[in-house]
Automatic annotation (TrEMBL):
It holds the Pfam family Ribosomal_60s. Residues 84-95 have a biased composition (Basic and acidic residues). This is 60S acidic ribosomal protein P2. Belongs to the eukaryotic ribosomal protein P1/P2 family. One of its GO terms (molecular function) is structural constituent of ribosome. One of its GO terms (biological process) is cytoplasmic translational elongation. Keywords: Ribonucleoprotein, Ribosomal protein. The lineage of its organism: Eukaryota, Fungi, Fungi incertae sedis, Mucoromycota, Mortierellomycotina.
Length: 109
């Protein structure tokens, strides 16, 4: 993914066809060592293809993927609300215990 991200950053920056040297140099600026075999493989797969068209094609494919799990999102939220209420109750109890400090005498009286 880091090689693809570097390739896309270079493309957005105006370099229509980044070379392996360009990608290696970009990754080196942030201290990432690169593997030339992977970079060469990426460049070979993207050679002659428009990045914007590839992104649009991938987006259309992702649109058909079901996004399950939306129904289960409410349960954790309800659990979190209950936990917040418990914490509020604990704080109230602690406040009551601390108010017992005034027993008719003070430390510096």
């Amino acid at each position: 993914m880091k090689y693809l991200a570097a390739y896309l950053l270079l493309t957005i920056g105006g370099n229509a066809t980044p070379s392996a040297k360009d990608i290696t140099a970009l990754l080196a600026t942030v201290g990432i060592e690169s593997e030339s075999e992977r970079i060469e493989s990426l460049i070979a797969q993207l050679k002659g293809k428009d990045v914007n068209e590839l992104i649009a094609e991938g987006t259309s494919k992702l649109a058909s993927v079901p996004a399950g799990g939306a129904g289960g999102a409410a349960a954790p939220a309800a659990g979190a609300a209950a936990a917040v209420e418990e914490k509020k109750e604990e704080k109230k109890e602690e406040a009551k215990e601390e108010s017992d400090d005034d027993m008719g005498f003070g430390l510096f009286d």
